[in-house]
Amino acid sequence: MTQDLTAEPTDVRGPRAFLEVRDLRIHFPTDDGLVKSVDGLSFSLERGRTLGIVGESGSGKSVTSLGLLGLHNRRNAKVSGEIWLDGQDVVGSTPEQVRRMRGRKMAMIFQDPLSSMHPLYSVGAQIIEAYRIHNDVSKEVARKHAIDMLGRVGIPQPDRRVDDYPHQFSGGMRQRAMIAMALACDPELLIADEPTTALDVTVQAQILDLIRDLQEEFDSAVIMITHDLGVVAELSDDILVMYGGRCVEYGSAEDIFHRPEHPYTWGLLGSMPRLDRDRSERLLPIKGSPPSLINVPAGCAFSPRCAYAELNDGRSETERPELREIAPGHRVACHLAKEDRRRIWNDEIRPRL
Amino acid sequence: MRRSIPLVATGLAATLTLAACGGGSGGSGGSSSGDGSFNAGLTRAVNPSTKTGGTLHLANAGDWDNVDPADTYYAFSWNFARFYGRTLMMFKSVPGKDGLQLTPDLAQGPGQHSADLKTWTYKLKPGIKYEDGTPVKAQDIKYDVERTLDKKTFPNGPTYFNDYLDLQGYTSPYNDKTPGKLGLKAVETPDDSTIIFHLKKPFGAFDYFAMQPSTMPVPPAKDTGANYKQHVVATGPYKFENYTPGKSITLVRNTNWDPSTDPNRKQLPDRVEVQLGINADDVDNRLINGSLQSDVQSTGVQAAAAAKIQSQPQLKKNADAAPTARLWYVAVSGDVKPFDNVHCRKAIEYAADKQAMQTAFGGPLSGGDIATHLIMPVLAGSKDMNPYPSGADNHGDIAKAKQELAACGQPNGFKTVISARTERTKEVNAALALQQSLAKVGIQAEIKKFPQGDYFKLYAGKPEYVKKNGLGLMMMAWAADWPEGFGYLSQIVDSRVIREAGNTNLGVKDPEVDKTLDKAVVTADTTARNDLWAQIDAKVMDDAYIVPFLNVKGLMYRPANVKNAFINQGLNGEYDFVQMGVK
Amino acid sequence: MVGGRDARRPPWPGTVVTFLIRRLIAAIALLVIVSMVTFAIFFLVPRLTGASTADLASRYVGKSAGPQAIHEVEVRLGLNKPLAIQYWNFVKGIVVGAHYDFGPSKVYCGPPCFGYSFINQTPVWPDLLDRAPVTLWLAAGAAIIWLLFGVTTGVVSALKRGSAVDRLSMGLALAGVSLPIFFTGLLSLAIFRDKLGWFPNAGTYVGFTQNPIQWASALVLPWVTLAFLQAALYARLTRAGMLETMGEDYIRTARAKGLPERTVIVRHALRATLTPVLTVFGLDLGILLGGAVLTESTFSLPGLGKFAIESINNNDLPRVLGVVMLGAFFIVLANLIVDILYAVIDPRVRLS
């Protein structure tokens, strides 16, 4: 616990930022062993700003988002650490307190809008329901609000579409409706978990634009969870790269895209499609597959897949690299010497991206 | 054999149920009191009483074939019909052997016959009335006999009158153009109290025909054909208050019944209520808890209740193992080699493990006694004999069987087929027991099962099929229409009744037997006739066409709260309903 | 795609009226097919296996009836006519009625005439009408009990998965599913009627209008026994459905909105779970209305199921045909109602 805190820019206890996550651990005991989905994650986020959490599937990013909302399965998950949201600790609160916060203070947009909306209730009814839990208003008022929200997320003729059912909407419209539902109570924190993955490419951009516009309008903090660096590239202020349940690199979008220091981040950048390069040169997939969260490799979790692990005199396999600040606001967890990282980035990786 | 009544088998479940409850007896008067003891009902009226009043509760797991006297053949129906109808003759309403005797009911005495046994005359008792007070006339008896002839309208009943009356083309009163619809020349009614039957061939035991419900008077004015069953006009001590097919029958006192004309019936309960379609196992439960007085079907309790009765003395004292006029046997076909040789047939007689076959039917208490010859002890004229003793414990005499096999030229045995009816589990089990005992003498028998509905029409009763498929041994049961030789033997030993299909004589072919039958039929003297039946029995056994193994008994239950309960042997081993009381 | 379960449902046609008309035509066609198949089973198959029409007729005469008597019965029952004519007469009877010869007078059997019983010589249709209410009461009462208990148990079990409550109720459900009615039925009679004397009328049905108290006393045990079996099935069905539904994305969404758990379960999870349960329920009820054979036999209830068994045992073909047709009618009707209800409940069916 302490080793991660040393990497914090400040060691002052208690909440400072609007959202502050400290040493969050979410473990699931199973018959096969302890699944360490999130294992010592810390970050903070202010209102009006966007944090991108990037990682492959199985890196623990979705569990993180569920943990923030207190939606993890309480019966089989072990949660420790702190999640301070606007001065209130989510981890330490009762389920009922967390429930009251959900939807009102923090809301979530899910990946697949079709499966995430109830098929038997109209879109309007689902928004109205979301609004009326936290606001003591009549159905008529709530309905007006729902229509208003649908209008604001760009649904044409919202007063008519309000009574439609999810399956009557197109994919993009559905995601807009989902966003309208999430924003119904004007939440201060909006978590978007792969919000565009299930959508057409053309619609993806519209939805991202919408989230950005709405963020400005509502002045909310946004956490954008994705496996696709391209999605966060334009939207995020800061980016957190997760691997094996831990943060391996954290920095501003500028840092991550132009001065990345972790070999895994390089890999992610290499596998990011770019329109201005040839397909054959462009894609540099990371070899191997993400580690099992039950048996995270000893030492650096990324070492089995890392092309530079042998440069560290065996430390890669034995010692876990700490997350260190290498420049203001830019932290990385890697055994490679600073010079090596700079050299490899500049000489080997960057030219090929 | 009258038609048997199919039931949904729930025996196993009930066994479990009753075992789980460990009894559940002790209802109000169900078993606690009374002067009964096991088998007491075979020899005396248990709980004698002359008190009137109350309701006699009966139940029937199925339904009647018909309550119309012209259209009924079930044994229990003939028993029950005596509540509401009287016939020319009837079985004496007494326990023991005397129940096998016929006694006049409507008639003043037994039928008077001409020398050629072709004309039978009955005189009616005076003063007998219908439930509405109108007098019963001899013409009304004739009318019901006429109805009985109409198989189109009344298909269920027996055909004895069709077969023996000199019909001269008469078919039905409903086609009868003569005034009063009494055009049948074979039956004469010279006056209102005399009825004369003219037969086309001599018959010595006509009183047994006169005992059948066909001689129950029906007033022509009240006849509605097939719908007459909705209100049968009563002459007996009770009349119909209600009959809802499939649901219930209610009888109430017939105030126009005169006990002075009827020494054979009592009129003790005020009402007789019968519930129809009651689950067979539940009927037993209710008998035991005393809410029912008797089971109308009278074929004995189900397996579950039988087990319970045998294990609990306080229940057993209310039970009777009643002998019935029903025999299980194995028919041996002389058409199938090597059974054309009498020694091979005799080998079967000796080899059969009758004890094991009895066990397959539930043992001595609920199955019956081991049979050693064709005419069972409850039939008039039965003479005890055991021509093929099957060893010390009735497990079969292997040495004798091998001797017979050697005499037959098959010292090492042979292969054959046993047929049985699929639906009859006990019959199939008995066939298995037979199969095993035959294996001991080297006879390899294969068991073939057939649906019971078509057993006689398409398989065992069809000689061509039997021959072609080598059904050497056929499982078979037969019950007498009434406990006397003719009603029992004529359809199973007369070689001349063998037809193309639908036979119940599965292979007895002996001219001497046929001759003796003909002689018995025209013998009016009971003793002489009974001797002839016994001769037939001995001859058939000597021919070894039939391997009898079980004289069927029904384990019957009479709750302590039923009065005057006894088994009437004339009624095929059923309780005599018309004697019962509840006070 | 979530809509796997609506895949087999037909698309909702333009208007409700055309939908209904189409379904009605299909239902009638189905009933005709059922009647033909049943007819074939009872009249054609025996002939194919070698029975002559006289053999069939001999089932309905007493022992040792001569060929003349058998022939008369054959003629009277119409067995000697070609099958097609027999079937035509059957259909004609239903539509316009038929005349029967019963001794002294001819009897007219008005439409819908399902013929006369071969055994009892009573018209089939009034008997069916007489029996149907018993089955209806039995099914309705049992349905209420089993829905209430089955669904509740299933929901509680699913929510408390793995707990003692879950294991107990699933154990009971297993018992309910595996124990046959004639066992539980007779057991309940032995205990509650014979031992405890609570329901003296059990096993003796009395019409509601005759005596409502005796009526109820006769029906309570059958209701509970039948419901026990069905509730077990529904508990398992509901539990499985609930477990599946609780894992759905939209349940997570409902929670993310901050809905109280009770609302999540009742409004979101249960609603979705009950949709397929409703389908099964409709079909079950339809089948049951055609006759709860075992329950009726065990408790001696004079309903359609018992009627069917008696008729089959007696080879009483007109009655068998009648009860099969009525049963098929109930099943078709239940199907139709389920389809309509389904459309009401599930918008995807209604509008897709």
Q: Rg of chain C to the nearest angstrom?
A: 25 Å
Globally, the shape of chain B reads globular
The DSSP helix count of chain B reads: 18
Approximate strand percentage of chain B: 15-25%
Largest interface by residue count?
Answer: B-C, 64 and 55 residues
CATH superfamily of the largest domain in chain B: Periplasmic binding protein-like II
| Tally of discrete structural domains of chain B | 2
Cα separation of the termini of chain B: 36 Å
pLDDT < 50 stretches of chain C: 1-13
> Which CATH class of the largest domain in chain B is shown?
Alpha Beta
Separate helix tally of chain C: 14
Count all strands of chain C and give the number: 2
- The total strand number of chain B stands at 19
Order of helices and strands of chain C: HHHHEEHHHHHHHHHH
How is the biggest beta sheet of chain B arranged? 6 strands, mixed
DSSP helix fraction of chain C: over 70%
Rounded to an integer, what's the Rg of chain B over CA atoms? 24 Å
The appropriate CATH architecture of the largest domain in chain B is 3-Layer(aba) Sandwich
Strand fraction of chain C equals under 5%
Q: Determine the structural class of chain B based on helices, strands and strand pairing.
A: alpha+beta
Shape, principal axes of CA atoms of chain C = globular
